[in-house]
Amino acid sequence: MLTVWAGLRKLPSWAFPVAFAALLLAVPLFDVGYEATRYIELSLILALVVSGLNISLGYSGQLAIGQAAMYAAGAYTAGMLSTAGHTDLGLHIVAGGLAALVVGIVTGIPGLRLGSWSLAMTSFFLVLLVPDVVDIFEEKTGGHLGLSGMLGPTLFGYVLKPADMYLAIVVVAAVWFAVFRNVVVSRHGIAFQVLKQSPVLASSLGMSVYRTKLTGYAIGAVPAGFAGALLANLDLYLSPEIFGFHLATGALAASILGGSVSIYGAIFGAGIVQFNNDQSSEFAQYSLIFFGAFLLIGGVLLRGGVAGVMRNAVRRLDRAAGIGAAVVPAQATDSATAMRPISGGMLEVGKLSKAFGGNQALRDVSLRAEPGKITALIGPNGSGKTTLLNLVCGFYRRDSGSITVAGASIATASSDRIARLGIARTFQTPLIPPGITVREVVISGRYTADRAGFLSAVLRSPHFRRVRERDLQRATEILRLTGLIHLADSEAVALPLGMRRMLEVARALIREPKVLLLDEAASGLDENEVRTLASVVRQIRDAGCTVVLVEHNFDLVLALADRIVVLARGGVLAEGTPAEIEANVRVRDEYLGVVEEKDRQVSS
Ligand SMILES: Nc1ncnc2c1ncn2[C@@H]1O[C@H](COP(=O)(O)OP(=O)(O)OP(=O)(O)O)[C@@H](O)[C@H]1O
């Protein structure tokens, strides 16, 4: 049994979905009857809708249920084209997808601009509006009586019979799921997951949060439009009731039950929900209860839905069959891999002030961090170190003062633009998205380098392949340098704290930043990890980068820093070389005194 499993695992990953699609295409040969083929058709149509929800909700984290309205847009576009005499199914699918995309963009812009729960509310009202919009255009849509009189579908002049419609639905679903997969495994799919984890992280990597959210939401609309066009041509009749809350909740239940952060989970979820729809036709009033139960089972009991259960089963079988990464002991950094030269930029902060209400967090702080040097920023808790980093990164707006990098002002630039200008950072609490590997986390740092659009990702164009090759090659180099190469394929979020901190350094480093801001990168690390970190930070400095180190570990600061700036109560208390700072009486009293006092309290 395990040998069979090991043999199956040697097949390429696309072999299983392709075999499943071939099986579905072959179903009519077995004469399974009308009900079974109708069930497959409706399940695949629903799976298209659900896959859109997986992109926008599961991968991009946008809480919205507007897919039902986009489904309606695709269906009515196809229906009206058909009643106007345009019967080509290809035309209907393209037009349906575009109509849904337009609805997605038009409703996504205000919903996302307003932020917070607005998108959820906008999409909720969008679904409520479907019958009214259909009524307003009654002449074309048939209003609440439904749209009838559609002509049978054709393809390039050939009239499609019911059996051909079945094949068309399977082919459209198979092509869409291949596209979906290509997007999800590309850097765009990783970007969606970064955004879902934290908009702050996304903008610190140079991603425009608004544009990435809108893209995820709008792309999620397209398969719903395809589904609508297929449904219209399957039934040749449309009623506004099809697109109401029953569908919206059913699609949500299918997404959660199948596993919203998965590609093929949409098919499992849709299959189960469609089976429920068919079985419960006599007790239709109970179907919402079933959907509620599915949501609970998928969201609470299974955690990750059916796809999550299958992933775990695969992992267990792999372990039993001895497949996958062997446990490799932690590795030291690879000194044979040379750090590429980095062109650092001088960071200059002049008379910078920032208050939070009555709390003056920074007052007239000026400092310079030079390329090829490590500038440490130390000071007691609450002295304003992180506030300074957040001002440099554009997460906070200064009250007064200047911030320049390589002579260019960044004081008013947005955080994603500042990141694209070459300022990279790590966070006090590492921000690592769940569900992606160590290698993918590092690659996410290159999202704004070497642009490769969605279309090239979908089509796997030569340009996309070159960019991917560079991403992989650079990630391998950086993982070697940071001693994480043996963990490249492990799930990043499961790493211990020390490795997650190093992973953040690796993600920042892959961008070859002009300025690297390290926010308490050594906190919580053991001695070995601190040594490794120190060696990596020295290499980054020697490569030419401007390094700013915010750190409480005074010994590490003394060992690493070229210059030290001491902050206290929002102002600069002292500045100088490590020897000067160590000998400074005010620093001893106001900062080191505090540290020693704290140490005494901890040890007593
Ligand atoms: N977003 C915020 N809203 C209100 N007050 C804030 C905010 N961020 C920081 N502060 C306040 O600004 C002051 C400086 O905080 P900051 O986090 O910059 O200090 P720090 O030197 O980084 O401290 P630590 O070493 O504990 O991280 C503190 O009084 C803090 O409460």
Structural overview:
This protein is an alpha/beta fold and 604 residues long. It folds into 2 domains: 2-320, Orthogonal Bundle (ABC transporter involved in vitamin B12 uptake, BtuC); 347-433 and 511-603, P-loop containing nucleotide triphosphate hydrolases (Rossmann fold, 3-Layer(aba) Sandwich), CATH 3.40.50.300. It contains 25 helices and 12 strands. A 6-stranded mixed β-sheet has the order 8-9-10-5-11-12, sandwiched between helices. Helix 3 crosses helix 12, helix 4 (67-83) packs parallel to helix 6 and helix 5 (89-114) packs antiparallel against helix 11 (209-235). 47% of the residues are buried. The structure holds adenosine-5'-triphosphate. Adenosine-5'-triphosphate is lined by residues 356, 359, 361, 379, 381-387.
Query: What's the total number of strands?
Result: 12
Can you give the helix content as a percent range?
Answer: 55-70%
CATH topology of the largest domain: ABC transporter involved in vitamin B12 uptake, BtuC
Largest sheet: 6 strands, mixed
Please give the count of helices: 25
Low-pLDDT stretches are none
Which CATH architecture of the largest domain is right?
A: Orthogonal Bundle
| CA-atom Rg in angstroms | 28 Å
What's the CATH class of the largest domain, please? Mainly Alpha
Total of domains: 2
Ligand inventory reads:
adenosine-5'-triphosphate
Organism: Rhizocola hellebori
Subcellular location: Cell membrane
GO cellular component, one term: plasma membrane
Protein name: Branched-chain amino acid ABC transporter permease
